Queue: 2 jobs
Job 1
Amino acid sequence: MEKNKIETYTCECCGVTFEKGWSDEQMKIEFIENFPNTSDDDAAVVCDTCYKKIMDKSPKQIAKSLVRDNFPIENYELLQEERKKRLKFWESRKIYTLVQNEKELIKFGEEVLMEMKKLR
């Protein structure tokens, strides 16, 4: 390897190539801090812009917004119950694409609820 070679990476979201600003070790530490229950297999290397978009939609960020806006946990729990009812409906109709979507929403919602409870 050349002594002064600039290391780069390609963002897995937008596909643009950037110069590395952090070491692999620094990236791993941030990943563990922000996504403690996530496997390395689910990780992706992304640029700052894409990372900000992802984090704006993370369960932790959604929970912070809901708590800041005084959204009652009880209402979010009711939303989760409605999602579970829809899941049963889609399962009874054997519409598997919607079953999968609903399962993902329920899982995301449970993570949001967990984060909301931590913040209260």
Note: The mean pLDDT is 87.
Job 2
Amino acid sequence: MLNPIVAGYAANHHRVLPEPVQTVVPTVARPEPPPMPPTECPRLRRMRELIAEEEAAKIQTIRVQRQAGAIERWRSTTVNGNDAFLRFGRELERTGMSLADIDATLWQEAGHGRHPSERRVQVKYIMRSLRGCPSRMAA
């Protein structure tokens, strides 16, 4: 079978089209454990509540540590401010922060950049990027 060529090249130059590649979507989410059956025993119920509270506190602690780490990396960056600030916004998103919290944090941390006014202008575009706004694809 002959490979298709792209028109627009000189007769003696052919460009072979790449074969289509299937996109693989990574699955990172862990399956949730099945819910515990209800119980009438008040001691067992209280134990389950304590375990759930402990797990929620542990998750919150990890989230706060990740956010603090992202802020520390942003404040200590010495590379291109635009790229570093965008990475900072994306890192905050990966920690599980809401978009409103990310927006507030970006505004707050813009003052720690080498050029705070440029970072403040950039906040709007980072938030648009995080929301996945299709209008930026028009250009």
Note: The chain has four helices and no strands.
